[in-house]
Amino acid sequence: MVLFVVLGIPILILDIIKDSYYFWVNNFRADLNKIIIVQEKSTITNKTLREVSLVCKQFSENKIKAVTSNALIKIFRL
């Protein structure tokens, strides 16, 4: 217990100082590139509504009650 108090607290303080320095160096540099995700405008057309209803109807006919999002993405990317 005494060893923890003697060594633990200084190690904790040094670790906090090191983490603060690392954060400062990496987040306030001049050549920092911000990550910006450009959003595409999405539109709903009659064609997309028909495709969605067709896929839902196929799932219903096959007695499928749940589908993962990965499966739907694969279906609509085709």
- Percent range of helical residues: 55-70%
Q: What's the β-strand tally?
A: 0
Q: What is the gyration radius calculated from CA atoms?
A: 27 Å
Structural category is: mainly alpha
Largest sheet: none
List the helices and strands and how they pair.
Blueprint lengths: L1 H26 L18 H16 L7 H9 L1
Describe the structure.
The protein contains three helices and no strands. By secondary structure, it is mostly helical. It is elongated and about 70 Å long. The model has no long low-confidence stretch (mean pLDDT 85).
Characteristics:
single chain; mainly alpha; 3 helices; 65% helix; 0% strand; elongated
In summary, what is this structure?
The protein has 78 residues and is mainly alpha-helical. Helix content is 65%, strand content 0%.
